[in-house]
# Entry
Amino acid sequence: ACNTIVQNFPGALCVGGSCNGNIVDGSFSGETISVSCTIFERESTRIGMLQFSLGEDPAESIAEGLVQEIEKRPWVSAVEMLVASPGMSYTGFCEGLNRIRKNVQVFGSLAGQISDEIPSFVFSNIHGYSTNALLCVLLGGDDLNVETAKVSGWKPLGKTFTVTKSDGNVLWELDGRPAFEA
# Structure
C-alpha cells in the first residue's frame, strides 16, 4: 500500500504500524488495512522524519535525543510518534519528553501485536520496517496549527478481570488463565 501511494504521489511520506484491528468512525472495520491521508494546503508547511532504535539505549537517552533533534529544528510545532517495542517501560521516556519546548504538541500511538507469531512493527517509506523503533513525524510551518487533547482512559468493554500473574510490565495471567486466552 505504501509503495502504491509513493508511486502515485512522489514525495509523499508514508508511516504506519501494526494493530489488532482497525476502528473507523467509532466502529471495528473488520479490514486488515486502514489508510489515513493528511493533505497540507500551504506551501509553508514543513514535514520531517526521525527514527530511533529502541532497546540499545535507555529510554531516557532516546527522549533526550528527540528533544535535541527538535531543538535543531525551530520550525517544529508538533511531533507524531509511532512506537513498536514490546516490553519496554515508557516511564523514563515520557518524563524525558517534558523537556520538549512547550509550544510543541506531542501525540501518537503504540503499535499493536497482531498475534504471538507476528510482533508489533512500525514502517516508513524512508526508514523501512522495524519491530523495535520509534518513528517521529515532525510537523511545522507558519500557517500550521496543531491542537492535541490528553485522553486518559476509555469506555470499558467486556468482562472485568483480575491480574493473577505479572512480571513488571508483562501480563501473564488474568483470573488464573493465560492472559492471551482472555
Observations:
- The radius of gyration is 18 Å.
